[in-house]
Each structure stands twice: as structure tokens, then as C-alpha cells.
Amino acid sequence: MAVIDVGELDFEREVIERSHTTPVVVDFWASWCGPCKALGPLLEAAAAAREGKVVLAKVDTDANPALSQVFQIQGIPAVKAFREGKLAAEFLGAQPRATVEAFFDALVPSEAEQLAAAGDEASLRRAIELEPTRADAAIPLARLLLARGELEAALGVLEPLAGNFEADGLRARIALTQAGQLPDAFTALDAGETEHAFELLLESLPDGDGYHEDVRKVLVGELARIGAEDPLARETRRRLAAALF
Length: 245
Fold this sequence. Notes:
Structural class: alpha/beta
Order of helices and strands: EHEHEHEEHHHHHHHHHH
Radius of gyration: 24 Å
Distance between the termini: 58 Å
């Protein structure tokens, strides 16, 4: 089902809910619109060529004025793409075939993205062969290697990642491990005892001569891993700031 007609009654189900599993491109059009008639076949051909990896939903704006209002459609054709229940990309007006194809291509997960999502070691390795800077593959693979004690291999996987807090934290953890520092904290991290691990890391800061900065990086990296909205992350960030400043 590459192309479907959608209206106000089924938009939530056919577009928003469906987009959690398959990207949905919505074509807001009308029968009187000349540019719509030019763009429509290009959208339909692009959807058909991707064989179910992207769904095209067509919304007649004359028959569905409420949807036009909700999405603030000021002119047509208006094209909006949804992924994971959210607006992911959009454009306005008729576009050439190359632009339409590129728009659809950006919605389809790349091979590396699919491999990273699979999560097993072989898939992660293949993903970073294809895209060495792909953090969502390199970081899980580095954690697997670290758990096996393959520290140099983990560092090699992390090398292409610049400006990534989790990667910086893992590099710092490897440096501390190689120096024989804080084994209890890292054992707790690996056991899922995150709060206890954070406590041990924070306690080490006042006496952390020579490795103070590495401890900070480990904490910042682990805070990035668990997410800014986690209550433990908020409290740990406050305590870390107090300890540093």
C-alpha cells in the first residue's frame, strides 16, 4: 500500500500512528491546483519505487479544511513527512523529480542505520564499516569491547567520534581503567548500579589528582547516556557542578 487517501477521521491512525513503523509523506492537494497535478505523479512514483518503505498519504484540502488549519496550510501543494509520530521534513510547491527523490531517500533508513538498530556485534561492526562516525553503532560496540576487556579495540572504534559526550566518557573510562583507578565504580556501572557508581565517582573528585578531568568526562558521558530528564541525572549534574566549582 504505497498510496492512500486520508481525511480528518483517519489521519491520526493512517499518518501519525503508522509513522511509528513506516515513514509517511502527506500530500496536501486540491483538484483545482495545477502545480498539484504536476507534483502528484512524482510523489506517487517515488512512493511506489520504495516498495512499502514509505507511504504516501493524499489529503484533499477542500474536503478536509480542519486538517489544513491544524497544519497551517497556506498554499498547495504542501508536502509534509512524518516519522515516529512527528513532523520530520516538509516542502511547499511543485518540485523537480530529483528533489522529490532526495526527499524520499532521506526518510528511508540507510543500511547503516538499520544495522545499528539491530544491535548485535556483527551488525554494529558492519554499520561502522559503512559509516565510521555513526555514534549509535560505535558507542554500543565500544561498550561491548570494553566489557570484554578489549580496551585498545574500543578506543579504535571511538576514534572517529569527535565532540560526543558518551564517546569522550568511554575514552576517559578506558584511561582510568588502564591506570587501575576506580574499579569499584566501573563494576557498579556494568552491573546496572548507576546511582552507586555515580556516588563513587563523585566521591573520588576531591582526591582525584591527576585523573580529576577523566572522572568528570566519565560522569558527563554517563549522564548523556541516561538522558537529561532522568531525576538521577539532574541531581548528579547539580552535585558535579558543586564539586567542580
